[in-house]
């Protein structure tokens, strides 16, 4: 790895920052107490805020999932009323998508993008502060709907009209407002990331020198700019339908409920890639580190990511095969959907080839990254099954769909976030995370997650419908297994919290280059990374990238 | 302008274009559906019968389904549930509206055609669905619907189903055919 080490310049630079006037800066610029966090414009502190926020949302959304699994432990209605069950499934989805996964990736981008491109901070630090603080407000409002008369959102996270308009609880207007705020936060975050990556790269770093994490985030940010306005538009139309007597989605007044689904999924499909592309980037950074090899096929990874992003705009109606599309449309969306398997296959191939004849060690971040590759691919395969339009008529709205998207989102996106946290914790805190608890966390999670979601495939193929609090007796065994797996997975996340808290408070000291095989720019900085880094850009001409 | 400002300006322009595109999608969708008939909506205006040859070699079954949406104590019944027609020939069927409620109310029947490909070939000369109905408490009303399936109906279509869903209309100034919709969709 020696030839991969950077030349003198960045190292010297970072040492001078580390050794220097951190204390002196504290005196000058920093408030103490909560106001410091409220007003901070530092990308590392904002990144930390995002990550803490998303972890709390992950736990809240997780508790809601456990309520669902508790009710589904046995057939019949035991624990909760169907109305509350519907609110739990809906809020679980909304919170996990908009409150846990998306902010976690934005938090990682805040922390790592400037460090990986040699920038002193994000391009728009005050905007960065604003985009973060919109989120706690949005989600406090969203959670507060649960206490309002008529309850919170109960129409599924996809909020199909007219369930979310004509038949919606009165709190829906608050739900729309909360989603608007979360959307604005995402848009501002995306603008910031684009401005940072395109303008603040250190001299000598070309676009094709960037790490895959930075690349995937750049593409994700463009996706956000493209589709968040569509989400904002569709919820505004809902708002008008509910409160101002328009009929965008109301057949009685000349509107069309199917239009809602088209608009929603035109946003929604790119949205699911927004939740997976940064995960691809994280895995593409972690796998080479612990395989002690360069990433195989760097350029093809970049092009594959871009192709997935472009294709994501051409597949939305595969969520609507059962809505009554003409045959031509069914075929078109079936083939474009299958086409996505090609660039995704390129990625999986490259990861495996990177591992091939590598000198692999299995630290916790690598365990999560490897589990990602295997389990995400399983989710990809069930996605291919769902892409077959005639077969989808059978699978539509069953637990097979639930199994599919949980496989790509939980051992997919969520595992990649956990891998990233274990991987970068030494850089953030200066301490290694506890490897023993980390392994316990990994193995319990991986067993729990498979016990939780794998039986759902069978329940779905046998015809068990989604989003219903009760089920026929023949599904009892599958559901009991799923529930046990759910509780195992859910409670093992407490270990994750424990590891993080323990790592922040102390542990084995990490050197600047915390992992032997790591070669990206952030590892030239001391651990923990000082509050201000790369204040004068490092000269990277001659730096050997990836 | 600094490079960062230039990037942000470009990004904001892209953002505004996507907002405009989203707004444009609604009328575009309506136009697209009107041209292709893909969402199964039949025309909201009476159309003249095309006099031409009647294709007597072919029979098409036309079925009528009625549904009452929530919030309206009415019953809508197709007096002819199913007719067999030749493409090109005009037919008249009758529908009965009954208000079971204790007060007068207004409603509107919204049609939907299945398979959607047939909606472009369905010509309605008169239809109760072109306007709202107002029924006194207990009133019964029989209304005609005259239609023609044009003779260029695709060969593969043997059955056409017309579904009428009754929706309540708020009491207020009588709205005409354009209804109170603020959006261009046709009922």
From TrEMBL, chain A:
| A GO term from the CC aspect | plasma membrane
Q: Which InterPro entries match?
A: Cyt_c_oxase-like_su1_dom, Cyt_c_oxase-like_su1_sf, Cyt_C_Oxase_1, Cyt_c_Oxase_su1_BS, Cyt_c_oxase_su1_dom, Cyt_c_oxidase_su1_bac
Question: What SUPFAM superfamilies would the database entry show?
Answer: Cytochrome c oxidase subunit I-like
Which EC numbers characterise this protein's activity in its record?
Answer: 7.1.1.9
Q: Where is this region: Disordered?
A: 1-25
Q: Cross-referenced Gene3D superfamilies, in alphabetical order?
A: Cytochrome c oxidase-like, subunit I domain
Where in the cell? Cell membrane; Membrane
Question: Could you tell me the Gene Ontology terms of the biological process aspect for this record?
Answer: electron transport coupled proton transport; oxidative phosphorylation; respiratory electron transport chain
Q: Name one GO molecular function term.
A: cytochrome-c oxidase activity
Q: What is its main location?
A: membrane
Which family is annotated? Answer: Belongs to the heme-copper respiratory oxidase family.
Query: What biological function has been recorded for the protein in this entry?
Result: Cytochrome c oxidase is the component of the respiratory chain that catalyzes the reduction of oxygen to water. Subunits 1-3 form the functional core of the enzyme complex. CO I is the catalytic subunit of the enzyme. Electrons originating in cytochrome c are transferred via the copper A center of subunit 2 and heme A of subunit 1 to the bimetallic center formed by heme A3 and copper B.
Query: What is the name of the protein in this document?
Result: Cytochrome c oxidase subunit 1
Q: Which organism is it from?
A: Modicisalibacter ilicicola DSM 19980
Q: What is the lineage of its organism?
A: Bacteria, Pseudomonadati, Pseudomonadota, Gammaproteobacteria, Oceanospirillales
UniProtKB/TrEMBL annotation, chain B:
The alphabetized UniProt keywords are: Copper, Membrane, Signal-anchor, Transmembrane, Transmembrane helix
Topological type in the membrane:
Single-pass type II membrane protein
**Where on the tree of life does the source sit, at the highest rank?**
Bacteria
Keyword Nucleotide-binding (UniProt)? no
Q: Where, by residue number, does the polypeptide cross the bilayer? A: 12-32
Any Pfam family: CtaG_Cox11
Question: Entry's SUPFAM superfamilies?
Answer: Ctag/Cox11 (SSF110111)
The record's GO molecular-function terms, alphabetically, read: copper ion binding
UniProt GO cellular component terms: plasma membrane
Kindly list the places in or outside the cell where this protein is found, as annotated in its UniProt entry.
Cell inner membrane
- Output the NCBIfam families linked to this UniProt entry: PRK05089.1 (NF003465)
Chain's role:
Exerts its effect at some terminal stage of cytochrome c oxidase synthesis, probably by being involved in the insertion of the copper B into subunit I.
Task: Return the similarity comment.
Answer: Belongs to the COX11/CtaG family.
This chain belongs to the protein called: Cytochrome c oxidase assembly protein CtaG
Q: Which organism does this record belong to?
A: Modicisalibacter ilicicola DSM 19980
């Amino acid at each position: 790895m020696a030839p991969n080490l950077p030349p003198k310049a960045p190292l010297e630079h970072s040492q001078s920052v580390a050794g220097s006037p951190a204390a002196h800066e504290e005196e000058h610029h920093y408030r103490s107490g909560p106001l410091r966090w409220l007003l901070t414009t530092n990308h590392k502190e904002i990144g930390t805020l995002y990550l803490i926020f998303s972890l709390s949302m992950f736990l809240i959304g997780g508790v809601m999932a456990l309520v669902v699994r508790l009710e589904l432990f046995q057939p019949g209605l035991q624990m909760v009323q169907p109305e509350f069950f519907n609110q739990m499934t809906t809020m679980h989805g909304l919170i996990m998508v908009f409150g846990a996964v998306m902010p976690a990736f934005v938090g990682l981008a805040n922390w790592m993008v400037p460090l990986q491109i040699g920038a002193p901070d994000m391009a728009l630090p005050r905007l960065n502060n604003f985009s973060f603080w919109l989120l706690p407000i949005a989600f406090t409002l969203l959670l507060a709907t649960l206490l309002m008369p008529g309850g919170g959102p109960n129409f599924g996270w996809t909020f199909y009209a007219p369930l979310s308009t004509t038949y919606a609880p009165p709190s829906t207007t608050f739900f729309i407002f909360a989603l608007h705020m979360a959307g604005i936060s995402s848009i501002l975050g995306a603008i910031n990331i684009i401005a940072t990556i395109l303008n603040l790269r250190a001299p000598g770093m070309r676009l094709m020198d960037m790490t895959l994490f930075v690349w995937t985030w750049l593409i994700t940010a463009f996706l956000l700019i493209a589709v968040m306005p569509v989400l904002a538009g569709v919820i505004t139309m809902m708002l008008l339908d509910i409160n101002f007597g328009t009929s965008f989605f109301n057949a009685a007044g000349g509107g069309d409920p199917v239009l809602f689904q088209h608009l929603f999924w035109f946003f929604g499909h790119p949205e699911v890639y927004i939740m997976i592309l940064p995960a691809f980037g994280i895995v593409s950074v972690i796998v080479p580190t612990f395989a002690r090899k360069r990433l195989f096929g760097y350029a093809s990874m970049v092009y594959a990511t871009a192709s997935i992003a472009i294709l994501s705009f051409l597949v939305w109606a595969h969520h609507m095969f059962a809505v009554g599309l003409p045959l031509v449309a069914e075929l078109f969306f079936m083939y474009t959907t299958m086409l996505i398997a090609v660039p995704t296959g390129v990625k999986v191939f490259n990861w495996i080839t990177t591992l091939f004849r590598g000198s692999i060690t299995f630290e916790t971040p690598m365990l999560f990254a490897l589990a990602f590759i295997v389990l995400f691919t399983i989710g990809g395969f069930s996605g291919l099954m769902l892409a077959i339009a005639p077969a989808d008529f059978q699978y539509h709205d069953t637990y097979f769909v639930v199994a599919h998207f949980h496989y790509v989102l939980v051992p997919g996106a969520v595992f990649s976030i956990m891998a990233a946290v274990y991987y970068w914790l030494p850089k953030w805190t200066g301490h290694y995370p506890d490897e023993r608890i980390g392994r316990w966390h990994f193995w319990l999670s991986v067993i729990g997650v498979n016990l939780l979601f794998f039986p759902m495939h069978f329940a779905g193929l046998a015809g068990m419908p989604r989003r219903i609090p009760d089920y026929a007796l023949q599904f009892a065994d599958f559901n009991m297994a799923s529930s046990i797996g759910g509780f195992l997975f859910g409670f093992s996340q407490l270990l994750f919290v424990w590891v993080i808290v323990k790592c922040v408070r102390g542990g084995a000291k990490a050197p600047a280059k915390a992992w032997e095989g790591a070669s990206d720019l952030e590892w030239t900085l001391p651990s923990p990374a000082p509050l201000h880094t790369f204040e004068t850009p490092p000269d990277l001409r001659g730096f050997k990238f990836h | 302008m600094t490079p960062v400002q230039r990037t942000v300006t470009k990004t904001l322009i892209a953002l505004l274009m996507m907002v405009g595109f989203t707004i444009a999608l609604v009328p575009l969708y309506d136009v697209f559906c009107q041209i292709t008939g893909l969402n199964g909506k039949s025309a909201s205006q009476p159309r003249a019968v095309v006099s031409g040859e009647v294709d007597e070699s072919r029979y098409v079954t036309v079925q009528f389904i009625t549904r009452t949406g929530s919030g309206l104590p009415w019953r809508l019944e197709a007096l002819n549930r199913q007719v067999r027609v030749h493409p090109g020939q005009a037919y008249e069927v009758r529908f009965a509206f009954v208000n079971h409620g204790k007060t007068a109310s207004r409603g509107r029947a919204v049609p939907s055609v299945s398979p959607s490909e047939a909606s472009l070939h369905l010509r309605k000369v008169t239809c109760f669905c072109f306007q709202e109905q107002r029924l006194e408490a207990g009133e019964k009303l029989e209304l005609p619907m005259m239609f023609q399936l044009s003779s260029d109906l695709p060969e593969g279509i043997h059955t056409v189903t017309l579904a009428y869903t009754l929706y309540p209309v708020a009491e207020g100034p009588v709205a005409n055919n354009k209804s109170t919709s603020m959006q261009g969709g046709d009922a």
